[in-house]
Amino acid sequence: PTVMENGSLVCPCAVTFTNQADIMLLVDSSTSVGSKNFETTKSFVKRLPSNVDASLAGARVGVVQYSHEGTFEAIKLDDERINSLSSFKEAVKRLEWIAGGTWTPSALQFAYNKLIKESRREKAQVFAVVITDGRYDPRDDDKNLGALCGRDVLVNTIGIGDIFDQPEQSETLVSIACNEPQRVQKMRLFSDLVAEEFIDKMEDMLCPDPQIVCPELPCQTELAVAQCTQRPVDIVFLLDGSERIGEQNFHRAHNFVEEVARQLTLARSNNDNMNARIALLQYGSEREQDVVFPLTYNLTEISNALAQIKYLDSSSNIGSAIIHAINNIVLSPGNGQRVARRNAELSFVFITDGITGSKNLEEAVNSMKKQDVMPTVVALGSDVDMDVLLKLGLGDRAAIFREKDYDSLSQPSFFDRFIRWIC
């Protein structure tokens, strides 16, 4: 920020996106993709809107998953039930691998005729992203490879696998992308879809030309729109208090928790059917867990508890921490009755590097599944245990936020994405 003569702070120039965008994702759900790779693709689909929405005003996202003829399934751009990132993620989560043939040309025609043509907004730029792992069925009409071309749709194709080393298959991708090779991406593995670098690259491709705004206004640190107002969310933070973290990083992490509490729209009472409540558990070794504060809507209670928090500076056992959180935060430690609201999404947010003892981890993961926990993993630093992170994320790579260090927690680019994700 710049200091003005009157002593006030002025925000630096900001990059904003003022155009509307309708984004259609076409996902290959054929047999050759495989169940595991299909789940990875779903992780990419869930993750992409949270990145784009953080910098792009008025974005809508639709999905077509396709296999053989007549098996197309869609999440429409104008589906009234999709009114938040969370509801979009839930809709994607319900998509199941079809495991049939590959009718890509027909899927492109279906996407235009049934979804884009009927629901595109007059002033919106339409983007399409086609994700496939191989050649289409020869019985399909190859004339429809260009079904989206010449219709004011910017088409991006992502070809995954060795098959696209063959010239004729590469040409297919270019044809789908309306003969714009710069809009063709190739990768060897499906796991490359969820790499932060690739998601950032796709965000750049899907965002219209930015407008540079340099307002002479006081800096505003709060989000422009109140968050978590459309539905109830109970969020349990599990904060790693091990010696690996270090006291300075530990304080950065609990400051992040407090800032999240200040940004969210908190519930008005424990019986409020909307808005958010928050709890925090600090964990160390197998027998070291500290409920800093239980599920609450009281910001004063949260701030007072965080002001008195003491860093455990211990070893780390995340499995025991999860079990303790379920038995003492989600459920009442006295009678075992559920304290988390039954109509609320129950979210566990792990702030960790994933370096932890493995005891009780499998039991803990099963307990999360039993309680219908929606996990989010904030993995900080370069020395992380990805196997543990994936277990904490219940196998969903989209739920894992990889950041280089604890300073990233206070960066607006990460903070806004995180808030949109959990809401």
UniProtKB/TrEMBL annotation:
<keyword id="KW-0176">Collagen</keyword>
<keyword id="KW-0732">Signal</keyword>
<comment type="similarity">
    <text>Belongs to the type VI collagen family.</text>
</comment>
<dbReference type="GO" id="GO:0005576">
    <property type="term" value="C:extracellular region"/>
</dbReference>
<dbReference type="GO" id="GO:0031012">
    <property type="term" value="C:extracellular matrix"/>
</dbReference>
<comment type="function">
    <text>Collagen VI acts as a cell-binding protein.</text>
</comment>
<dbReference type="InterPro" id="IPR036465">
    <property type="entry name" value="vWFA_dom_sf"/>
</dbReference>
<dbReference type="InterPro" id="IPR052229">
    <property type="entry name" value="Collagen-VI/PIF"/>
</dbReference>
<feature type="domain" description="VWFA">
    <location>
        <begin position="22"/>
        <end position="206"/>
    </location>
</feature>
<protein>
    <submittedName>
        <fullName>Collagen type VI alpha 2 chain</fullName>
    </submittedName>
</protein>
<dbReference type="GO" id="GO:0009411">
    <property type="term" value="P:response to UV"/>
</dbReference>
<dbReference type="Pfam" id="PF00092">
    <property type="entry name" value="VWA"/>
</dbReference>
<feature type="domain" description="VWFA">
    <location>
        <begin position="234"/>
        <end position="418"/>
    </location>
</feature>
<dbReference type="GO" id="GO:0051402">
    <property type="term" value="P:neuron apoptotic process"/>
</dbReference>
<dbReference type="InterPro" id="IPR002035">
    <property type="entry name" value="VWF_A"/>
</dbReference>
<dbReference type="GO" id="GO:0005581">
    <property type="term" value="C:collagen trimer"/>
</dbReference>
<dbReference type="GO" id="GO:0005518">
    <property type="term" value="F:collagen binding"/>
</dbReference>
<dbReference type="GO" id="GO:0030020">
    <property type="term" value="F:extracellular matrix structural constituent conferring tensile strength"/>
</dbReference>
<dbReference type="GO" id="GO:0043491">
    <property type="term" value="P:phosphatidylinositol 3-kinase/protein kinase B signal transduction"/>
</dbReference>
<dbReference type="GO" id="GO:0042383">
    <property type="term" value="C:sarcolemma"/>
</dbReference>
